[in-house]
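Reopening closed ticket. The problem is back. First fold of the pair:
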Amino acid sequence: MLPALLSALALLTSCAAVVSDRPCPRVTEFPAALQAKAALELDAAPALKQMLDGMGADRAFNRAVCG
């Protein structure tokens, strides 16, 4: 059990180093007026709204991680 745990820990540690070496993704900012217009248009496109909500969560994560 202990050797398996140590092996898993070693693998996870090496993964963390690779992830932290990646550059932060670009996050494009949009003017508030454009965001408001898009929000109104999304009422007619619920699937698109769901996709954009997911992308918004990714953007928030990237901002928190990359600063």
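Second fold of the pair, where the issue appears:
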Amino acid sequence: MYQPRMTSSAAFRITAQSAALHFLVDGVCLCCLYLMAGGQGETSLMALFLTYNILAFMTQPFSGMLADRTNGSQRLLLGSTTILLLAVTTAACLATFGVPEAGLLAVAVMLGIGNSLFHAWGGRIVACATANDTRALGIFVATGALGLAVGIVGSSWTLLAIMLIAMCALTFPSILPVTKTTTTSRNNQERFSEKTATQCLILSILLLYVMFRALAGEALGSYVTKSHSVMQTLAATAATGKVLGGWMAHHGRRLTLLLVATAGTMVCLLWHNSGMPVALAGIFLINCTMPVTLYWANASLPGREGLAFGLLAAALVPGYLLAYIV
């Protein structure tokens, strides 16, 4: 299905760069949000995080279509980094001179948009550069969980500055070199309207499964008391599951992996009162499925890898909301 047009070393470099940026982007966003949230009332906090999450997740299908339309152009990465840089600069000014509510929401909007653009760009370029290799997909998505944990647990202006500088250092010098080696899938020009009913059905099932995965992950995490060390352990477990799931899926039997991991997760959900080890086992198992669903989504939408990534990301939100309702 995919015909990569770059060497394995170039594909590895793009995967490594994108994974590192994923860690930094998510870390910068959450670190900035938590710094801005300090001292705010409950209503302001809810508005702040709701605005960010809606923009960061629900707009990813649109960001994905933009990434596909621009053929994975590095301008999308440049735009994302510029917006995030502006958001942090605004947050620093607000912290120095006061933090009116309108300013807080403006920062949340910029963080959400910058985050959305990056994820669409990163998900697409890794899939195309590596010929939809589940190992690379697993590595790319894994680092985001680690970045979230670091940004929350270690939130400080010093950490934010370090991560922002590192993000810019990885982004700006690499714009031209990466552009020259960007690849696309063979069917890049295929129109979405020409997809078969079977492909659309598969994609619909994947979206429903992603909702379930978000619900299961949130439910398992809610069964343990959140301390800084526990949050780091949960993030490390989720990241390990994504990486190992990608490696296992690479050797075939993706459906078997999905079914076994799902069954194991269901058992952990039923025995959630057994404590931390069971919760960690469930979180590990359910995250093993992430590279599999992303692989199949890309395969269902050849040439629309940005849209595939964005749709799966948006599907997480209903699952998270259900976890708080059920």
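Update: turned out to be a display glitch only; the data is intact. The two ends are 40 Å apart (CA to CA). The chain has 14 helices and no strands. Please close again.
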